[in-house]
Each structure stands twice: as structure tokens, then as C-alpha cells.
Amino acid sequence: MSKTAPAADAEALDAFYADLEANHLAPLWPISAELMPSAPTPQTAPYLWKWSMLRRLAERAGELVTIERGGDRRVLSLANPSLDGAPYASSTLWGAIQYLGPRESAPGHRHTPSAIRFVMEGSGVWTTVNGDACGMFPGDLVLTPSWHWHDHNNETDEPMIWFDGLDLPTVKALDAIFFEPYEPDELQEVRGHGISERLWGGRASRPRGFDLPVGPSSPLLVYRWGDTDAALDGLLAERGGPHVTLEYTNPVTGGAVMPTLGCEMHRIVAGGRSRPYRKVGSSVYVVFGGAGSSVIDGQRYEWSRGDMFVVPSWATLEHEVSETSDLFCITDRPMLEALHLFREEWIDFATDAPSRLEISVVTSA
Amino acid sequence: MSKTAPAADAEALDAFYADLEANHLAPLWPISAELMPSAPTPQTAPYLWKWSMLRRLAERAGELVTIERGGDRRVLSLANPSLDGAPYASSTLWGAIQYLGPRESAPGHRHTPSAIRFVMEGSGVWTTVNGDACGMFPGDLVLTPSWHWHDHNNETDEPMIWFDGLDLPTVKALDAIFFEPYEPDELQEVRGHGISERLWGGRASRPRGFDLPVGPSSPLLVYRWGDTDAALDGLLAERGGPHVTLEYTNPVTGGAVMPTLGCEMHRIVAGGRSRPYRKVGSSVYVVFGGAGSSVIDGQRYEWSRGDMFVVPSWATLEHEVSETSDLFCITDRPMLEALHLFREEWIDFATDAPSRLEISVVTSA
Amino acid sequence: MSKTAPAADAEALDAFYADLEANHLAPLWPISAELMPSAPTPQTAPYLWKWSMLRRLAERAGELVTIERGGDRRVLSLANPSLDGAPYASSTLWGAIQYLGPRESAPGHRHTPSAIRFVMEGSGVWTTVNGDACGMFPGDLVLTPSWHWHDHNNETDEPMIWFDGLDLPTVKALDAIFFEPYEPDELQEVRGHGISERLWGGRASRPRGFDLPVGPSSPLLVYRWGDTDAALDGLLAERGGPHVTLEYTNPVTGGAVMPTLGCEMHRIVAGGRSRPYRKVGSSVYVVFGGAGSSVIDGQRYEWSRGDMFVVPSWATLEHEVSETSDLFCITDRPMLEALHLFREEWIDFATDAPSRLEISVVTSA
Amino acid sequence: MSKTAPAADAEALDAFYADLEANHLAPLWPISAELMPSAPTPQTAPYLWKWSMLRRLAERAGELVTIERGGDRRVLSLANPSLDGAPYASSTLWGAIQYLGPRESAPGHRHTPSAIRFVMEGSGVWTTVNGDACGMFPGDLVLTPSWHWHDHNNETDEPMIWFDGLDLPTVKALDAIFFEPYEPDELQEVRGHGISERLWGGRASRPRGFDLPVGPSSPLLVYRWGDTDAALDGLLAERGGPHVTLEYTNPVTGGAVMPTLGCEMHRIVAGGRSRPYRKVGSSVYVVFGGAGSSVIDGQRYEWSRGDMFVVPSWATLEHEVSETSDLFCITDRPMLEALHLFREEWIDFATDAPSRLEISVVTSA
């Protein structure tokens, strides 16, 4: 650390610091250790939200708050208590639940933040993306990529609840948010139903011979649970468990579904425990099925279907499950890889004690 | 055109040309028009081989020629008559049929040319690629990428016939062929059956979290007919016909299955006619189903199931079918794209007469 | 906008909001307009620091604060008053001046944030990067890329002052900072002087035939003012002025010098005015020579040699110069491009009045 | 090897082979070893052309053959005697010398094959590429990329001789040649002189802020000998010799100057011997300065300034020089890399005997 010269008396130094402040300069030496820690020291802390609570409050929102023309979305965002009141799940990721009541619709708009929807409950809502109406069913992943028009339309008699994941905190931090409502605030004209699936949904194939616009995000807008389930079964059959991971991909590039957001599904077999792991970048997990717990930097979080939890950057993560479990998650990994800031590692502990990573059990309200 | 100077007499010029020849130099001016035509003038001419003949001779080869250890493949290559006796379908592509009798096997080897297999007849042969035994059924595409060990093993009581497609003429022209037999000339040890399909066969997804080597070619080694058929149906449903094309892709990159070879499947609905088209680069077509004809640079070639035909570079191509037809093809397009030499165009004719592209009907022996 | 259902009484709603807060959920509807503005609303405001002040306080720091072993850097960071006390020039960029006195040195360390140094005053200091000692002279750009060891060593009898530019705020926001001191806190062993320039400093050429490690950042570590000056002259000669821009590039990729930071030099000829422009992403400008002013979102900032100023995301920017001026700047553009969030536009105003963009003149202290 | 079944009598087999031939099929088994050798067996053999002969015949061509409107180029191509009369230096590369007399010009045209010019003798000819007139001086490399208009114009009183290198044999083999004369056969209108050098000639920098079209080839069209010479000196200073290699690069990508052709300059210091090496792909060398010899697959070729020689694919190559020598070469390496067919290796011999690679000395006529 730099320190004051022997000859510098305290008074001179005080005057100097005052001079700096008055001129909007900051000396590095008093803050360098905080600015540049030896490893990430995220403000984001782990946190878990229970499905029973999420579901109850989403339903209550449905009773109390309408979606009107000129309006927006009935969304409850995961506001990580470590983030000083910001409505973010982590410093870089937005997570939320969205509730769309029977016969309700949410009008069109578009924005530069990219979003994904992962369906928790309900069947048959249409999310229309640039005119392509995508049917939504439990376990499906639906993309609404950056600057694509999108609206949601529930023509059924049941409500739907889905998880919203966005890169919004990062796009905000980069001062790159643009937003536009679909005028006049209503649903888009539907060009067809399931267009992207018919064009881009082939297994390891692509259409040829007609002009299809392709941008940086996946042109395939829906990933069906049946396909995800089958792919996980294949991975398990090949690797033998206990933990396999699939990343949803953009069929045009083979990479992440969107330049800023990655989507994964983890399956851990009953009684299994994942290998302790950490990576740069945060994740928001959504328990799609099963029951178990995750130890995050020494704190155990117990979960069952519908629960959602946040894993901060560089936090050690280990899952342990009683039932075979499926964990959906979003991650900022594609950003970090694009910027060459990604690191990951598996951690080998000296002993194999059941609680090797656990310090205490944390239970969210 | 350059021409001799007025002062140059014929004798001086003759002496000069002899001097050039003796010194292994060639004057450009007499040959520049031939060297640099205004558009491609391929030596390769269109040609069509009938399945009845191919099948008969493949079977006959099975009777007369054995596959022995230390040996090779029972392969009959399409030797385009325009190519001066070279055993090539086109100047850049190898096409052939391979016949593997009941209980026969073809031992392992590897080579830098890349190969694909497209199954015409028979069920249940294993092609083992770097230890991964891939079951082969009609309509399946199997890859044996550059420098991958591969052997074929028929444990069934029926013969199998498949189409072989390779980039061999180009790799030869580039003086880049390496070959290695699997020692001692036998089948590889099988690590598993269908490994690549379990790891890489997910729809628009990829495995994560364990170290999987990935090279320039697709790690998915088998493309099942059922998937191809379904994807074509999707394209037809979306586009309405009469002609849709699917390219098989490397799931890691979204691009061609191998750096030098592209594989496509075309479906043309009964009564349909494709839009006249030409591109730089040649193709070898294999009729997987249906019946119809193709007009290639004004010559009509009639075909039905199993027939194989060659389309040269820059030849105008139009298909016309009586039954809904599926045409598999290999193409050198990935090479041409990598070298920025690819061009394609659709041709609009002034009149819509049925025979607009046809000059005469050609029937192969 | 969403609003409360007609039936919802205020009491029920208050209870609901309290319930949300207690469960760490945030309703989107009250904040959606702020979260998703129609265009970027950066917290970062424009600001300008005068060289006379910067130089005076840097020198004063040299008198009062020593650099000691175990220590760090004598750095005064531009602390934009709009950023609530954060020591950042903009939300995404760090800018600072560093002062290294005669015969002083700053010991080695490395960190994942990437840094550039642009020399303002002094000659002959060595910045050693992974063992390659790079001599520093006015107008030179020196790179210390992510996770490269670097130290600074002044063997001359004069102080040196340079501008430091880093991606630190963004790497911090992404929770991706790692830092390591060079042990024992001292200077690196020097492998050679100017290695990178001899290997990678050729014009439009690269070394071949020996194994040279290449990462995501430029292996060329120094960009000499003479080259920059000559390239700007070439651009001016070709384009005729009044404003030309050069981006420093990574010779291995032709792209930005580092994945997260772009460096540019702008030259505007005497009496010239640049075309009004805005882009997503912020910039920190350093006046290397000349005098003039910049109108940023309607506020005029007057500058001369050594002054530094910040341009926020999407702010309209126009330069107007009395003397031919050279403006160095760093920008987060490579990040935004990598994430497909970059936009830029030139703005055409209806009239050509001299003050078309100006609202008032701002003078920094 | 496959062989005939025991039961097959010779007569049946003869009939079968005749049947195959009549149906334009070729059995693989008799030719598989030739088709798939264990390592490349290029038809191209090494060959060396002496400058004294090249110069004499180029001059003689200047006396005897005019360049007329409607015409072409006064080019003498290196016709490798191993290639059955083809006017090619190797199977994949074209090499030639072009002679342009005082006050002569060669009219505009364009073609898909890419070409480079390397100046041997004369000063001040303009090669105009898409309207940009590029001055040519000894040691300069000038690009005329695929499908760019180009003409040559000698306004001086001295002739010029340069080396032409093209990918023509490969583009021909791929049936991808297009050609178009500039109408009416004359010189292009000149937009400027040295445009590309002013825009793209900066060291490790690129222009920003105005719209510049960029294709797959380098937008920088001229590489000056002074820069090449200085870069080689830098490499030698850093590596200590005896052999350094520089590749000319496309500043937009950092890669080869054109997708199909690589250009290199080798400098070997007096008394030095290069490390024995081989690679897939052929090269054409042009001795720009110095004197020495190269041992190619055991045959020694002695050379001095202006000589040109061919190194076939996978041939072992070693240079040994008496004077410090500069060897320019073109190579098909970018193609082979794009197709993932490139391999290279350095060969370590057990002994260090002077003639370790030499079998006999070959002297060209």
C-alpha cells in the first residue's frame, strides 16, 4: 500500500484530500484493496424464494391489479435483499414471476433487454414474438429476444404463471436500454402459430433456399419440455449421473440462445450430489421438479418444486437431492465469455463428509 | 487479345515459343480465354445412374469379391464418363455405393478425406466411429469425419447398401490426403452404441459441464430419417411447397456437418416443380423416395427411387415430380463458402412453358 | 399502465404491497417506466477536468504520498460528480491520472480489469508487461491487458504523468474482478525491451513459424505516437477533414485492442466542426493537443491540452476546434458490440446555426 | 486388401469388370492404395526457373508480342514439367512473370481467381484496383483480390517485370471461375492514387466513422518493401535468426491477405540454415535478394536473385544461404486452413551432417 511520505504532516494531507474532493478526484490508494479484491466480492448474496409464497402473491396480484391497455405486465420481481432495494435477483440478472389471468392479455412492446419465459403453471397461453404466436406449456422455454415485439395472450379459462428472466440489470448498467410500446397498445397481428418451430425446430438441421432473416439471437423461439426431458435422459444414460446439464442453444450458431443470457436445465438423480463448483457470473435457479437442497458458499438452501434461488458470482455451489430433480437456470455466462472474463472450476474437498460444504441451514420465509 | 507485334515474323515467333517450351514457360495469351471463361465451364457433365443397375452390380460384387482382413471396402464408385476415366462423380465429389453382405465387416481405417454414408437398403449395420457404434437404417445419414477411425460391421443376416459421399477429389487436388489402417486390420473396440446421439442429439441443446472434445466436424454422427422427415414436414407446412430444403447441421456451430461437405434433403410435393436455380459447385443427388425428373442445363433426367445423378457447377437445375419425392444430396458448398467463391441464383424465365428448360430427354443406360 | 382493479380498496392494496416487500418481491408496474425508458437515461453526466488542476494535484500527490513496496499506484481517479461518490469517470469506465516521480517505481501486480496508459508528460519510463519492458513517450498508448503482470519503473530524473483508462466499473458490476500482487512486491524480471513491437509491430504483417501465445487481447503492447500521427495524416489526406478517427487495433484480429476497451484518436482540423453524433456507451476523452470545445447534449465544454472529459451513453456530441486538435479516447464500444447492444447515429439538424446544439457554456473548476 | 472370392473364376470377374465399366462404375479395391496414400503423393514436383532465363524471355516477349485493346496480359507462366503440360507452377498455384514495356498498359478486367503481384524490376507502374491507382516499386506486394477490377499502366520509360501469383488452378478445379472484361477494353477511371494505403495503411489501426466497404480480402492493396524489410529486421533482432518469416496480413481480420492465398517473406541470415520443415500445401518461392540453396525432398536447388522455385505439398524443405537472403513466397495455406486440412511439422534429424537432407544437386536449365 502507498502511504504518506514521512515529511507529510497530517494537516497538509487533509488539505490535499479536501482539494482532491473539491475537484472531483479520488485517490486510489485508500480504496485499492476494496476496488480490486483478490477474487470477486459480489454484493449479491444467495437468496431463496418459496413457491408457495410466490404463487400466493401472484394470485393475489391477479385479484388486485388489472392489466389495462396502455399498460404493462403483472410481474413480481425477485428483489434480492442484499441489493439495497433494487428489484433485481442478482446484480446482473432479473428474475420474476408473471401472472396472466384467464382471458387476459398483456399488450405488445419491445426493448433491448432480452427476456426468457419458463412456464411453471397453466397451458395454452400464446406469447407472440414478431408476429409468431408461440403456445406455452409447463416446462417450455420461450424467448423474447432483444428488440423483438412481444405480447402475451391468455385465451384459456385458467391463469398461467411463468418465470421471467432478463439481462435487464446489465443492460441498465451499460446504459443501453431502449423501449418502445406497440401502438396502439394492443396485441400484434398474428402471422402464424409456431412458425419458428416449423422453420428452425428440426434436430441438427436448418432450412435452406429461402431468405430467412437471422440476427444475433436464436430464431427458434420455443424449446419444448418434451425435447428437454428426452435430451436429459440421453445425457444421463450416457454419463450415468448423478448430475447432467443441458444448455439450450441457438441452432444458427450452436451457442447460447441470446448474446447476453444463457439457459440451462440441470437434472440430478435421486440421492445424488453434484460436484462442488464455482464460476464467474451469477445464476437464477428455478426448481421445475423434485426436491433437495443446494449448499451455496457454505449455506444450505432447501427447495422443492417452484422455488427460485440465486447463486452469486464465484460462490461455491453443490446440489444434493432426495428426489430426481430438474433445475432450470438462467446465467450471464454468455456475456462473460464474450468479454473473456469467464472462469469456472470444480472443487475437490479433502474429505467426503456429508456436510463438507455446509455451515448452517438457511430457510427462507 | 494480345497479338504478335507487326514486326514479328512467324519464324521469330516460332523460335520464341520453342524457347519458352524448352524452359518450361507457357505464354498466357493463347490460352487466356480458356483459362478464364466468363462463367464456369466444368469438365464434369451431368450423368445419372439407375438404381436397378447399381443394385444388381453391388449384389454381384458381393458374390465375386470378398472383404478380407488387411483389406478395404466393397465400393463401386460413380465414374462420371466426362472425367476421362477418373473414378469421381464430379471433379470435386466422390459418390459410390457400398455393399456389405450378411455377417461381413469392413475393418477400421482413417483418412483426411471426409465421408458420409446415406443408407439405401438394409437395417442394423453398425458403423463405428472413434469407438462409437452407430446403428444404420434406411434414410439415416452417418458421418465419418476427417481423420476419424471408422469401420463397418454387419451382424445381421441381410446385406446393406448405402451411398458413400466424399470430398476425396478435392482433398486429392489439394495434395492433402493422409491414410492410416487400424492395426491389426480389424474392427475397433466399441466404447458404446449411439454415444454421439445421446450427447449431441438433443434438439437445439448441447451438453455442459463435462469435457467433450469438439473438432471442426459435427460430433453428432447420426442423423435419423425420422427427424429428417419431420423437419421436412414442418418446412412444407410453413412454406406451402412445392419444394423445401433442409441442410443437416453440426450442432456445435450451426453450420455444415463437415468443413468440406454439405448434406441436404430436398422434398418436392407431387405435381410440383422447383424454381430453376444454379450455384457454383457440384452436387451428387440420391433419390431416396418418389419419382420425377430433373432438367439440368436443358437435358431432362428421369429418376425414381435409388437413382443417383450429378449436377455440375453453375448448371441450371429444375426438378419436376409426379410423386412427392425426397432427394438427398451432397455438395461442396461449404468449401466454396469458406473460400468466398460461392454464388447462387434463381432464374426467372420469360415464359412459363412446361418445357422451358428442356432441350431433350436423356436416359442413362 | 397496469392499475389496481376497481374492486381493490386502498387498504387491501397497502397490505398487499407490504406483503410483497416482506417477501422480497417488487411489483413491476410502479417502476416499469423508470426501468425501461424509451432511450438510455444514464446516471453518468458529462464532466470536464482541467489539466492545470490535474497536473497540480498529481504533483502534490508526488510530494505527499510515497509508493512503497507492498504498495500500489499513485493514481487520482476522475470521480464523476454524478455518480454518488464512486471513483469512476462513467458508469462503465475508469479514468485517472497516474504520477510516477523520478527514480520511482510501482511494483508488479495483475488483475482481470484491462487497462491502457496514454502518456501525457515525461519520457522514458518503462512499463513492464509479462516481462516485456515497454518504453513510454508522450502520445504513446501502452496496454496492460487483463491478467497480465505489469509494473512501472521510472529510471529518469523527471516525473511522468499518464492517463489510465480501465474497464474496472464494468468488470466490477459483472463481479469478475480477480487481483494478484507480484510476489515479493517488486518489479518483474525483464525478459527484454520492446519485444512486442519487434514481434507484432510490423505494418499489416505477422510473425510466422515460431510458437507465440496469443490471447484475446492485442499482443502488441505499445502504439507509438509517430505511427498514430502518420495514420491520422493519411486519413485526413484521403477524406479531406474536418474530422477523422482512427481506432487502435489488435493486429491478430483487426478488432479492438482488448475485448472490453476500445481506444481511438480523433483529429479535427483548425476551424472544423464534427458532425453531431451519438452512440450507446460512454467515452472518456483526453485532449492530447489543440484547443476547442465539445457540445454534449446541448452543453458546451471548452478544452485545451491535457483536459479530460466524459461523454455519457447516447449523449449527442459535437466538437468544434480553433486549433487542429487531437483527442484520444477510451470507449466501452467493444463490450456493447460483443453483446449486440451497440447503436450509433449521426444527427442532421434542420438548420446550420453555429449554436445549434448549444444550450449554455459550462466551465469546470 | 479386398480380393476376389475363392469361387470367382477369372472369366466371371472379367465379365463383371466389363459390366462395371459399361455402366460407368469403378471398383474401389484395385485403386484404393493409390487413391488414399498414407501421406500426400503430389503430382507436382519441385522445379526451379532461373532469373536470367526468365528475364531474357520476358524481354523477348516484349519485343515480339504487343498488348492491344481487347487484349490481355503479357504473361509467361511457370509451367511445372511434372504437370503434363498444364501452365501451372503447382497443382494449386499459378506463378508467372509479367512484362510491361515503357508506355504500355494492360486493360481492365476482373475475375474470381485472386492475384498478387510482387515487383522484381522497374519503378512507377500503376496497378489500378477498383479505381485506386497503386504505385509499384521493387519488393512491393500489390493485391488484386477476387472480382476486383484491375489494370496496369506503365507511364515510365522503363519496362517493369513482376511476379504474378494466383490461386487459379484451385479455382479452376472448383469450377468457380468467372471473368469479365472492363468495357470498352481500356483502363479504369482513376479515383485516386494510394487510397488504400491512406485509409488502411496505419500500423495496427483502422479508420472509423465513415462507411468503408470491406469484403473477405484485404482492403489494403499495397505492402511496401520498406515496411517488410523493417518488420523482418525486427523479427531477426528479437529471435536472433537464422530464419524468420513474416506473413502479410489483411488488417481487417489479422489473417491472410486473401481467403485463398497467403503471402510470406522469409529472411535467412548469411551462413544460416533453416530448420527442416514440411507442410500440407504447395508454395512458389521468388528470390528477392541474396543467394543460397534449398534442399527439397533431398534434392538441392541453388538460387540467386530473381530465381523462382516450387515446393510441393508435404515436401521436406531446408534453406541454406551464403548471403543474407529474402525469399518471397505464395502459398495455398489459407485454403487448407479454412478446410481444416492443414498440417505442418519441423523435422529433427539424428545427425547434423551438412548434407543430411541432400541426395543430389539439381540444376535447372
Feature tags:
35% strand; 6-stranded antiparallel sheet; homotetramer; alpha+beta; 18% helix; disordered C terminus; 365 residues
Polypeptide structure, described:
The structure is a homotetramer of 365-residue chains. Chain A is α+β, with helices and mostly antiparallel strands and 365 residues long. Chain A has a single domain (47-362), classed as Jelly Rolls (Sandwich), CATH 2.60.120. Helices cover 18% and strands 35% of the residues of chain A. Chain A contains 7 helices and 28 strands. Chain A has helices spanning 10-22, 32-35, 51-64, 168-173, 195-200, 225-239, 333-338; strands spanning 3-4, 25-27, 47-49, 65-66, 75-78, 94-100, 105-111, 115-121, 125-129, 132-136, 141-144, 150-153, 160-166, 179-181, 192-193, 205-208, 222-223, 243-248, 262-268, 277-279, 283-289, 291-296, 299-304, 308-311, 317-321, 325-331, 344-346, 360-362. In chain A, the strands form 5 sheets. A 6-stranded antiparallel beta sheet of chain A has the order 3-24-21-26-19-18. The first copy, chain A, has a 6-stranded antiparallel beta sheet with strand order 5-6-13-8-11-17. A 6-stranded mixed beta sheet of chain A has the order 14-7-12-9-10-15, with no helix packed on it. In chain A, strand 22 and strand 23 (299-304) form a beta hairpin. The longest helix of chain A has 15 residues, at 225-239. Chain A is globular, with a radius of gyration of 23 Å. The two termini of chain A are 43 Å apart. Mean pLDDT of chain A is 92; it is low at 351-365. Chains in contact: A-B, A-C, B-D, C-D. At the B-D interface, strand 1, helix 1, strand 2, helix 3 and strand 4 of B face strand 1, helix 1, strand 2, helix 3 and strand 4 of D. Strand 4 (65-66) of chain B pairs antiparallel with strand 1 of chain D, so a sheet runs across the interface.
